Structure formats: structure tokens, C-alpha cells
Amino acid sequence: MEVVIVKDAKAGGELIADGIADLLRGKPDALLGVATGSTPIPIYDALIAQVQAGGVDASRARIAQLDEYVGLPAGHPESYRSTVLRQVVEPLGLSPEAFMGPDGSAEDVLAACEAYDRALAEAGGVDLQILGIGTDGHIGFNEPCSSLASRTRIKTLTEQTRVDNARFFDNDIEQVPHHVITQGIGTILEARHLVLLATGEGKAEAVAQTVEGPVAALVPASALQLHPHATVVVDEAAASKLKLADYFRHTFANKPAWQGI
Ligand SMILES: N[C@@H]1[C@@H](O)[C@H](O)[C@@H](COP(=O)(O)O)O[C@@H]1O
Q1: Which residues form a coiled coil (predicted)?
Q2: Ligand 1 centroid vs 259 CA: distance in angstroms?
Q3: Which of 26, 30, 92, 128 has the CB geometry, 3.0–4.6 Å to 193, for a possible disulfide?
């Protein structure tokens, strides 16, 4: 696992966008897995700016969603499908056909989960998966004690996650769904490169447990330790509880530029 400590969220977004641009130069139709939440927005902003400035061609990129609420009406502005279309797919100038995601309004949710897991594999697998992290260490919507081998499935949100996400629903927790579909941890680990961005002091404890704690279902993001190519990008505040922070800084400062992330 590589840990990169950056000055702030903007620098983290730019670093990761550069990594995505490198990927697209080598594989123009790369399948990019995207996360929602506030944290990855600087990544999307930086990538969109690069594309609009002609620095990289993303016209053949494909986008895959990480997770979704269950039971929101199709087209709800806070469904993750709507969010990803609005924040990533449309600004990159991609058509909805370039996008895939689980169907959170399906009548048969179990079938929708299996179908999405299959669709990801049939699309050749995710090349680079962007991840955020919940305050409790969740990735996607894999809450603590999710199986590290889990596949795309339905999960029940913790109260804490519903509280955290109420800000997207007029600060009204009653509007936050209880159930979600999420790529499983086993599914996420199949992506060829995992890139987790965490910013702010509120994520410091989860980051320390993810990077320096034991691999444990209690901290779902710790599963990144099992992946051969995982990059964790953190700002100074999110890095504040890392014991090896100086080592991570030293390693990155001395990394050959050609290596990228
Ligand atoms: N399902 C999403 C996660 O993918 C995201 O990482 C997390 C943190 O969001 P934020 O980046 O807004 O803190 O929120 C939600 O639970």
C-alpha cells in the first residue's frame, strides 16, 4: 500500500486526476470506478479541468458506480446514479451509455445486485476504483463487519452513516434510506488499482486503522492492505494519527517521477 500525504484536498484531487489521465493515455476506454460523497469532488473537478483544457482525452472512458441507495424513486437527485451523472458523466462529455451502476429501484434487488457484479466482470473489470472512507472505516456502503469476501449485495446502513449523509437530504435523517446496494469488498478488491482519498480530521482515526491497524472486517477499508496496488491519498489533517507519517512523506518525496501513483 502506498500512502501519499498531500497539503490539502485540492492537491489530493490533482494528484489522483493525474493518475487517471495517465491511465487514459495508455487505455482510452478504461473503466473508472467512482465514489460519491464530498471527498472525491476535487478529483472530478481536476479531471474535468484537464479534459476541458485538452490535456487528456476522456471521450472513450467508461464510468462505473460503487454503490446506491435502495428505494429512492428513479431520477431522485440524491440517488448516486443522478449524482454520478451530474458530477462526472455529463461534465466529462460522456453519454449515459458510458455509465453503469446498480439499479436501486429494481423490484428484485437481489437480482439487481448479482446482475451488477456480473456486468462489471463482463465489462472487463474496473481499472481504477476511486474510494472515499466513512468515519467508521466503511468503503462503498460496506459497513463495519462486512465480509472481506463480499460481493455486490444489499446492506443496512448504520445510524452514524445515515446521520452523516442526512446533509444531502435537507438534514432530515428520515429521508435517508435504510438500505443500499454496494459493491462488496471482494468485488472492490478485483479492481486493478484502488485509490482512496481521505481529507479532514474527522477521517484521521479511520485512516490510521485502515493503514496501520490489522486487516479486520470491523474496519472495511483495511481490506486495501490485501490489494497489490492500493494508493491512499490523505491531507495533513487526515494523516494526523499516522505513526509512520514521516516515512510516507520521505518515500513519496524520493519516488521516481515516472512511477506515477
Ligand atoms: N457510500 C459513500 C461512500 O462511498 C463515501 O466514501 C462516504 C464518505 O463520504 P464523504 O466523502 O462525503 O465523507 O459516504 C458514503 O457512505
Answers
A1: none
A2: 28
A3: 128
